[in-house]
Amino acid sequence: MKVSKKLGGEVFVKLNWSAPLDATWASANQLKVSHPLHIWQLLKCSDRIQHDLEAPFRYAIDREETGVLQSAQSKHQPSIILKKYLTDIGGGEYRCFIKSGRLLAITQRDIRAFYNYMTKNLKQTGKILTLFISEKIIPLLYEHLELDSFVLDLSLKTMDFDGSDGDFSDSNINIIDINPFSNCYCDSLLFDWENELMNDNVRKFWAEHDLILDGVVQEKLYDWSGFCGFLRTRMKENFSPSQFLEGRMSKDLSFDNFKL
Ligand SMILES: Nc1ncnc2c1ncn2[C@@H]1O[C@H](COP(=O)(O)OP(=O)(O)OP(=O)(O)O)[C@@H](O)[C@H]1O
Ligand SMILES: [Mg+2]
Questions:
Q1: In the chain, where are the structural domains located?
Q2: CB neighbours of 12 closer than 8 A, spacing ≥ 6?
Q3: Is 19 close to ligand 1, i.e. is its CB under 6 Å away?
Q4: Measuring from atom 8 of ligand 1, which residue has the nearest CA?
Q5: Distance between CA atoms of 171 and 156, rounded to whole angstroms?
Q6: Atom of ligand 1 nearest to the CA of 83
Q7: What is the pLDDT of residues 118-135, one digit of tens each?
Q8: Which residues fall inside 5 Å of ion ligand 2, going by CB?
Q9: Of 14, 151, 203, 257, which one's alpha carbon is 20 to 30 angstroms from that of 23?
């Protein structure tokens, strides 16, 4: 209760890895909680939390048998994380894929909805996020954790950039979460894990081909070494991908012709 008061009374709850996103049915207020009983209820009702407690390393492989995995397993301690509840995240969330020390892809996080301002501000958003990730996040995570491939979730305060890159400060960006660069763990949303994100030749393919994607608008991203990838958002309101429908990405995104 003390912690929750310190954070403003209402908190967002998760374990070190996952939030109980699948248990909102057991809560009156989504993942916004103010009482220890509600926290217990949410954690107890979530399969995602169950997975983190029972088999958090199920998808982890120590390819070079360096012992890193074993050491991580022995040190791993599940913790309950309480964060200040952010009311203004809304549709300003992006998921960014960083592979081998370079930004590769950014997609809007909530792909169920169309956000007009995201599409409108695509160019500026791409520049701001590329700069922030390439200059601040990539060097920081490498220096402290030797991590060069990861998936970063962040939110950008909703704003109109009125055509200029203007006075943009990093305080307008909230880091939400950092996830493993793994197709077992992390949803690739408007990208395709196998054909795009895991494909070592994809940057070259993207640079040489014009992809027209149904219902998706994309913007080229440039870092210090030139073209690095794409930012994708939904383009129109009648595009409604569902993780339960086969070929949810529409024909263009299913990449039948995308064998390199
Ligand atoms: N502090 C916060 N306040 C309000 N909402 C939040 C907060 N942190 C996260 N959320 C919301 O909850 C969602 C899931 O949060 P988070 O990414 O931490 O969970 P996760 O279990 O790691 O999800 P995933 O498996 O997709 O990575 C976010 O997309 C965001 O909308
Ligand atoms: Mg996560």
A1: 2-84, 93-254
A2: 19, 31, 32, 33, 82, 83, 84, 85, 86
A3: yes
A4: 176
A5: 9
A6: 1
A7: 888 899 999 999 999 999
A8: 177, 179
A9: 151
